[in-house]
Design goal:
This protein is α+β, with helices and mostly antiparallel strands and about 210 residues long. About 35% of the residues lie in helices and about 30% in strands.
C-alpha cells in the first residue's frame, strides 16, 4: 500500500513497536506535530545514515503530547508502527516546512523459528550476565520478536538499519544469533581482562602449583 507521509529524518533507527520520546524544538517539526494532531495522522522517521536520508524508515504514531513549553517546544511520546520504503522524497512537503514523501509499506513475513528464538534467549542471558545487566532480560516479553531486542544487542546504526530492511523474521533471527555468537567471546575476554586489571596491585591469595 502506498501513501504520502510527513517525514522526520533522524540519525537513529526506530523499530516497529518501539516507544520513542522526542523533544520537538525546530519550527518545521513543531508544524509536523501540529498537523498530526489536527489530522490524527502519522509521520515517518527514516534513518539519516551515511550523510543522507535512507530509503527505509518506520511509520510513527503520536501517542501523547507530554509537555508544551512557552516557546512552542514540546515533549511527545510516540510509538513505531510498520516499516516503509520511500518511493519519492520531497525536501519540503507541498506547502509545509517539513519533508515528506510517497512511501510504500514493507510487508513483514512472520516466519519465526522457535529453535533459533530459544538460542537467542540463551545467548542474551550469557551476554547480559557477562555485562552485569541481566535485569534487561526480565523486561523481555516471553513471545519476543527480533525488533524487541534489536536495540539491546550492541549493534551500530548501520547494523540496525540492515536489520530494519530485512522483512523476514527468520532471517532477522539468524542475523541476531550470528551477531551474538561473534560478540560473546569478545565480551567474555574483555570481562576477564577487567578482572585481571582489578587484581593488579592487590594482595593475592594464590595456591602455588605442585612441581
Amino acid at each position: 500500500m502506498q501513501k504520502y507521509l510527513p517525514l522526520f529524518p533522524l540519525n537513529i533507527v526506530v523499530f516497529p513497536g518501539e516507544k520513542l520520546n522526542l523533544h520537538i524544538f525546530e519550527p518545521r517539526y513543531k508544524q509536523l506535530v501540529h498537523d498530526c494532531i489536527e489530522n490524527e495522522g502519522t509521520f515517518g522517521i527514516p534513518a539519516f545514515i551515511n550523510n543522507g536520508v535512507g530509503l527505509y524508515g518506520t511509520e510513527i504514531k503520536l501517542l501523547h503530547v507530554e509537555k508544551k513549553y512557552d516557546t512552542g517546544e514540546m515533549d511527545i511520546r510516540t510509538q513505531g508502527l510498520g516499516i516503509f520504503k520511500i518511493l519519492e522524497f520531497d525536501r519540503q512537503a507541498p506547502g509545509r516546512l517539513y519533508a515528506g514523501g510517497k512511501v510504500e509499506e514493507v510487508e513483514n513475513v512472520e516466519d519465526e523459528d522457535i529453535v533459533t528464538k530459544m538460542k537467542i534467549r540463551e545467548k542474551l542471558q550469557e551476554l547480559y550476565t557477562a555485562l552485569g545487566i541481566s535485569s534487561i532480560l526480565m523486561e523481555l516479553p516471553e513471545n519476543f520478536s527480533s525488533f524487541d531486542v534489536a536495540h539491546n544487542l550492541g549493534l551500530n546504526t548501520e547494523q540496525e538499519y540492515t536489520l530494519l530492511q530485512c522483512n523476514s523474521e527468520a532471517l532477522r533471527q539468524e542475523m541476531i544469533l550470528q551477531h551474538l555468537e561473534q560478540v560473546l567471546p569478545i565480551v567474555a575476554e574483555t570481562e576477564k581482562l577487567k578482572e585481571r586489571v582489578k587484581l593488579n596491585g592487590h594482595f593475592k591469595n594464590l595456591t602455588p602449583p605442585n612441581f
